[in-house]
Automatic annotation (TrEMBL):
The lineage of its organism: Bacteria, Pseudomonadati, Pseudomonadota, Gammaproteobacteria, Vibrionales. It is found in: Cell membrane. PANTHER family: IRON(3+)-HYDROXAMATE IMPORT ATP-BINDING PROTEIN FHUC. One of its GO terms (biological process) is iron ion transport. SMART domains: AAA. It comes from the Bacteria. Pfam families: ABC_tran. This is Ferrichrome transport ATP-binding protein fhuC. Keywords: ATP-binding, Cell membrane, Ion transport, Iron, Iron transport, Membrane, Nucleotide-binding, Transport. Residues 6-242 form the ABC transporter domain.
Length: 264
């Protein structure tokens, strides 16, 4: 087994009496931006929740760097993997600095305050997401896009090399969606962070991701580069739409026709 992977084997998972994932195998390599894509209800978020431990698999197992999750101490795992759930909420009145400082918990005792190193990392993390100087702002007063970047800064403050995000662009307008995805792509390039997220927009997945995991009815239908995954055949079989070739950033992909702007 490649030690630099996040891997799930034979994952069976769901909610109450409903099984969503039924025997899913997945291996995610480090160093890439990977997106889970597919129709609503196909199991994207369930797979993310199962891989992060938010949902306990009914059978199968999850391992990281060749070691089962159950063998990791939570605090030690947090030094390697930062997780951003779909709907994070901040306590009323909490400041940006206080929220981002929570990312430092894995690196100190519970009773210790912020050291000079902690303050340095907090500032660096906010700068990395374009929020330098926001330390004293109250999180609830920020825009949706700014709040999402504060949560991302908290993840960066963990100094983990893997970021797992469940639908990070949900409820953001198009401009803030693209802004956040660009920040994540830049973090992947500048810090060599491994980034995995759930995404709905195929055009954004083609533009910002190195690898796609295409799901259908709780199964992984295809995993590979956007060029390998976004084909006329997969679009028709998974989304029931006709595809059309489109050029994005010098690469050609097959996208639903509604995404493709006709040439004048």
């Amino acid at each position: 087994m490649n030690s630099n992977t996040l891997q799930g084997q034979g994952l069976v998972s769901g909610y109450q009496d409903t099984i969503i994932l039924n025997g899913v195998d997945i291996k995610i390599q480090e160093g890439k931006v990977t997106a889970f894509v597919g129709p609503n209800g196909c199991g994207k978020s369930t797979l993310m929740k199962t891989l992060t431990g938010a949902i306990k698999a009914r059978s199968g197992n999850v391992s990281f760097k060749g070691k089962p999750f159950s063998d990791w101490k939570l605090k030690e795992l947090a030094k390697h993997i930062a997780i951003l759930p779909q709907h994070p909420t901040a306590p009323e009145g909490v400041t940006v600095e206080q929220l981002v400082a929570l990312g430092r918990v894995a690196h100190k005792k519970w009773y210790q305050g912020n050291s000079s190193r902690d303050i340095e990392v907090i500032k660096e993390s906010l700068s990395s997401v374009g929020l330098a100087g926001y330390e004293d702002r109250v999180v609830s007063t920020l825009s949706g896009g700014e709040r999402q970047r504060v949560w991302l800064a908290m993840c960066l403050a963990q100094e983990a090399q893997w970021l797992l995000l469940d639908e990070p662009t949900s409820y953001l307008d198009l401009g803030h969606q693209l802004e956040l995805l660009e920040v994540l792509q830049q973090l992947n390039k500048s810090r060599n962070l491994t980034i995995v997220y759930v995404l709905h927009e195929l055009s954004q997945a083609a533009q910002f991701c190195d690898e796609l995991v295409l799901m259908k009815k709780g199964k992984i239908l295809k995993q590979g580069s956007p060029l390998e995954v976004l084909t006329e055949e997969t679009l028709e079989s998974v989304f029931k739409v006709k595809g059309k070739m489109a050029n994005i950033d010098g690469f050609t992909y097959c996208l639903p026709q509604s995404y493709v702007r006709e040439e004048a």
